[in-house]
Amino acid sequence: MPEGAQLSIGEVINLLRDDFPDVSVSKIRFLESQGLIDPDRSGSGYRQFDGTDVARLRFILQQQRDHFLPLKVIKSKLTLWERGEEVPNAGGTSQYSLDRAGEPFDRAELLKRSKLSESELSELIDIGLIRPIRDSVVFAPETGVVAVEAKRLMDQGLEARHLRTVKHSSEREADLLTQLVAPLLKATNPEAKARAKDVLESSSDSVLAMHRALLASELRQHLKR
């Protein structure tokens, strides 16, 4: 659908019906009542769906159709979907990927997705946690994850300047891992570059797993004090 287009509930059903024959007005309303979707409303109170809403609906319906998942489980998977992360199948795992997946965000879309205010986004850009990739208005796909999670932390009471710690930590970890593949990165042949990518991806998984475990351990100690 065209960027910025707004669809009625009937138009959404027509768009999805080929893939999901059972989709209906009542089903979409029920998903809304359960907090899985939240379309905008027109001045007259009619539901208006944009491209993100339609993609979200498609994801929910696909999880129901292909994996027979209850709404509670789908709702938990939506957190990964909102972050732009790969959603594993039931019982599966997903490896961290260095391939850039998805389309870049413009500033308006990033603000809408993350619910950051203009001033909050500007602060995150100022400290370097969020970096535009060109013309100060276009952002890489992974920026959506950073923006959503930064907003959650700021809503808990942290300020943008506090999040420098996260930025510095990721920079140090990246420097550490690139030491593993320094000779490969200096090579000019494609095989060496591909090997470097494989090593960095698997190493990133290890660092992320260690980071989560160590963070949980540290926080547990604080709770015991």
Description:
This protein is mainly α. The chain folds into two domains: 9-83, Orthogonal Bundle (Multidrug-efflux Transporter Regulator, Chain: A, Domain 2), CATH 1.10.1660.10; 105-224, Multidrug-efflux Transporter Regulator, Chain: A, Domain 2. The protein contains ten helices and five strands. The protein has helices spanning 9-16, 25-33, 51-67, 71-83, 107-114, 118-126, 143-155, 164-180, 182-186, 190-224, and strands spanning 40-41, 47-48, 105-106, 132-134, 138-139.
Helix content: 55-70%
> Any idea of the CATH class of the largest domain?
Mainly Alpha
Which class do the helix and strand fractions yield?
A: mainly alpha
Which residue ranges are poorly predicted, with pLDDT under 50 across at least 5 consecutive positions? 90-95
Termini Cα gap? 54 Å
Q: Write down how many β-strands occur, each being a DSSP E stretch of 2 or more residues.
A: 5
Mean pLDDT: 85
Sheet having the most strands:
3 strands, antiparallel
β-strand percent reads: under 5%
CATH topology of the largest domain: Multidrug-efflux Transporter Regulator, Chain: A, Domain 2
Number of domains: 2
Under the CATH scheme, the architecture of the largest domain is Orthogonal Bundle
Order of H and E elements: HHEEHHEHHEEHHHH
- Multimeric state of these chains? single chain
Sum up the overall morphology in one term: globular
